[in-house]
């Protein structure tokens, strides 16, 4: 599956509206973001491949299925952390890697400050999560690093995406599906998504 997929489930749309609300306090913002991320990953993993396997029930042997590949979750720090717990609730056996990227305020250029990834990324289905896709600079840096490290099967999961960021990712990585709960109008002069929900990292952590 490729392309941009807007997941328009009623529960996601309801919670996204509450996440956009400036009056939503950090503890509520955290809970809502985790919930939305869990609902989104259900759709974002719909096309994961499974293979046949056998299983012994308490009564007899039968045929079932299991995921063909291991799943690696990669939250982009900091804000991606807000999606991790909700997604782990659905895929508790997933491995977790981390990429720390900070957008410099004046240039909007993203720079790495942390990396922790398992070896052998070729064997994983990799789900990269970050609530915001703004200019796309952070997403491109993350995708560049992951493909350089061997990742072949990648999916991006965002809460809110700007058309600018979508274009950037689609033009360099046309085969990577981008899942989002909304495509917003665009960016302001400071690179903030409009109408957006503010700075997700700041709203999650209050700093
Ligand atoms: C924000 C956001 C994304 C990035 C999006 O992170 O969480 O990672 O900016 O912008 P881009 O598409 O223009 O790169 P920020 O750098 O503010 O770090 P934080 O998550 O620690 O708040």
TrEMBL record:
Cofactor note text: Binds 1 Mg(2+) ion per subunit. The magnesium is bound as Mg-PRPP.
Enzyme class: transferase
Enzyme Commission number, as recorded: 2.4.2.9
Reaction it catalyzes: UMP + diphosphate = 5-phospho-alpha-D-ribose 1-diphosphate + uracil
UniProt-annotated binding residues for 5-phospho-alpha-D-ribose 1-diphosphate: 78, 103, 130-138, 199
Family annotation (Pfam families): UPRTase
Keywords: Allosteric enzyme, Glycosyltransferase, GTP-binding, Magnesium, Nucleotide-binding, Transferase
Record text on activity regulation: Allosterically activated by GTP.
Role, per record: Catalyzes the conversion of uracil and 5-phospho-alpha-D-ribose 1-diphosphate (PRPP) to UMP and diphosphate.
Name of the protein: Uracil phosphoribosyltransferase
Organism: Limisphaera ngatamarikiensis
Phylogenetic placement of the source organism: Bacteria, Pseudomonadati, Verrucomicrobiota, Verrucomicrobiia, Limisphaerales
